């Protein structure tokens, strides 16, 4: 009986059903996402488990939703877009995520790369995310509670780094922790003036690509319970 309950919880009913998810995937394709592996992971990852129960009926809308502590779960398009950019250079075995948040982006990454190292400054959010990923049997994620501006130097370097909050400038520590040939995807700017950047570490330095205007919560320094 417990297993049937868990299966039903993961597969969803009504506004969280597979049919609802398929409509989301169709919309993401129309918006320009094209990676079959990324779309397949989004299709089967139960986003409704990563939001409060009162918002579960909106989980498969292509929109950001509040998760408490003035944070949001990113819209599915942006999750897919940033994941596609990170993986565009080929398979990744070691990815640093700055901003665990709800754990949804973490869950998507964990199904597409070998290992994810996720840093979150708000301990309460990260503890919830740990529980959700454990429930989904995603065990290739290591968590750190701390200041995302510092990255995770003890385990550097990383083939890919994804930042899920907007910094006014690219944190120097993240550039230092990016492996040669590695890719960093990060929103940069303040308020309504944010741009999504792709930064690739090459032999002679860093190549920056400005991709599109975005809107993220700010990447704050320090750590909170």
TrEMBL record:
One of its GO terms (molecular function) is protein-L-isoaspartate (D-aspartate) O-methyltransferase activity. GO terms for cellular component: cytoplasm. The gene is pcm. Its EC number is 2.1.1.77. InterPro entries: PCMT (IPR000682), SAM-dependent_MTases_sf (IPR029063). It holds the Pfam family PCMT. Keywords: Cytoplasm, Methyltransferase, S-adenosyl-L-methionine, Transferase. The keyword Glycosyltransferase does not apply. This is Protein-L-isoaspartate O-methyltransferase. GO terms for biological process: methylation; protein repair. The lineage of its organism: Bacteria, Pseudomonadati, Pseudomonadota, Gammaproteobacteria, Pseudomonadales. Belongs to the methyltransferase superfamily. L-isoaspartyl/D-aspartyl protein methyltransferase family. SUPFAM superfamilies: S-adenosyl-L-methionine-dependent methyltransferases. The active site is at 74. The keyword DNA damage does not apply. Catalyzes the methyl esterification of L-isoaspartyl residues in peptides and proteins that result from spontaneous decomposition of normal L-aspartyl and L-asparaginyl residues. It plays a role in the repair and/or degradation of damaged proteins. Gene3D superfamilies: Vaccinia Virus protein VP39 (3.40.50.150). Its main location: cytoplasm. It is found in: Cytoplasm. It catalyses: [protein]-L-isoaspartate + S-adenosyl-L-methionine = [protein]-L-isoaspartate alpha-methyl ester + S-adenosyl-L-homocysteine.
């Amino acid at each position: 009986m417990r297993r049937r309950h868990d299966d039903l919880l993961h597969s969803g009913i009504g506004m969280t059903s597979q049919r609802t998810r398929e409509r989301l995937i169709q919309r993401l394709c129309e918006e320009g996402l094209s990676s079959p592996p990324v779309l397949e992971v989004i299709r089967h990852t139960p986003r409704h488990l990563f939001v409060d129960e009162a918002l579960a009926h909106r989980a498969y809308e292509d929109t950001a939703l509040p998760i408490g502590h003035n944070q949001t779960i990113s819209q599915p398009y942006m999750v897919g877009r940033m994941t596609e950019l990170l993986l565009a250079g080929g398979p990744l075995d070691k990815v640093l995520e700055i901003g665990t948040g709800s754990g949804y982006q973490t869950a998507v990454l964990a199904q597409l790369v070998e290992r994810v190292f996720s840093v979150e400054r708000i301990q309460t959010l990260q503890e919830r995310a740990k529980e959700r990923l454990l429930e989904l049997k995603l065990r290739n994620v290591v968590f750190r509670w701390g200041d995302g501006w510092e990255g995770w130097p003890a385990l550097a370097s990383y083939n890919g780094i994804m930042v899920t909050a907007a910094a006014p400038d690219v944190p120097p520590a993240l550039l230092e922790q990016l492996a040669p040939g590695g890719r960093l995807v990060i929103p940069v700017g303040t308020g309504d003036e944010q741009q999504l950047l792709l930064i690739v570490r090459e032999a002679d330095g860093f190549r920056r690509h400005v991709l599109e205007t975005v809107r993220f919560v700010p990447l704050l320094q320090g750590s909170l319970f």
